[in-house]
Amino acid sequence: MSARSFTKVAPAVWRSRRFISLPDEAKVGFLYLLTNAHVTSAGVYELPPGYACADLGWTDAAYESALRELTDVELIDRDRDVILIERWFKHNPPTNDDHATGTRRRLQTIESDRLREKAVAGFDEVNAARIEREAQKAADKAAKAAGMSRSVAETIGTTSRLMGTRLMRGGQ
Known about the structure:
Layout: H1 17-20, H2 24-35, E1 44-46, H3 49-56, H4 60-72, E2 76-79, E3 82-85, H5 88-91, H6 97-108, H7 113-156
Antiparallel strand pairs: 1-3, 2-3
C-alpha cells in the first residue's frame, strides 16, 4: 500500500480529448487508477484485479473492459497486473532530490521490464529538467548576490570621497 495521503489530479483531465471520449465507466476507472491506495510516486504499480473490482464494485469483465479502453486511448499502459499511468511525471514531477531518490528507488522495483524502462525514461527526462532548473535558479541567486555586493562600489564609484574614508577601507 502507498504511504501517499493524496494524489494530484489536474483539472485539465476534463479537457483531455482522450479522457472525454471515454464512456463513463472508463472515466471512473481512470480516476480510480490515479487515486487508489496502490498509487506510488512512480505512477506505476501493481494492482491485483480483485482489489480494483472490490473497490469499484465491478465484475472482472467490467474492469478488463475499462483497462482495454484506457490502454487504447493511451491513458495507461499495463503488463498483467502492473499499471503505468501515461505521462505521470508531466503532472507529478519529483519536487526535490529526496523525492527523486525515493521515486527512482520505487522505479527499480517494478517487475515488468517494459514498463520499468518506459517509466524510467519518463522520469529521467523530467528529473533532468528539474535539476537544470534548480541549477539555473542557484546560479541566478548567486549572480544576484554577487551583483548586490558589487553594486555599492558601482553605485557610488571607486573614486568618490566616500570610498576613501576609513570606514570604507575597513577601519584602517
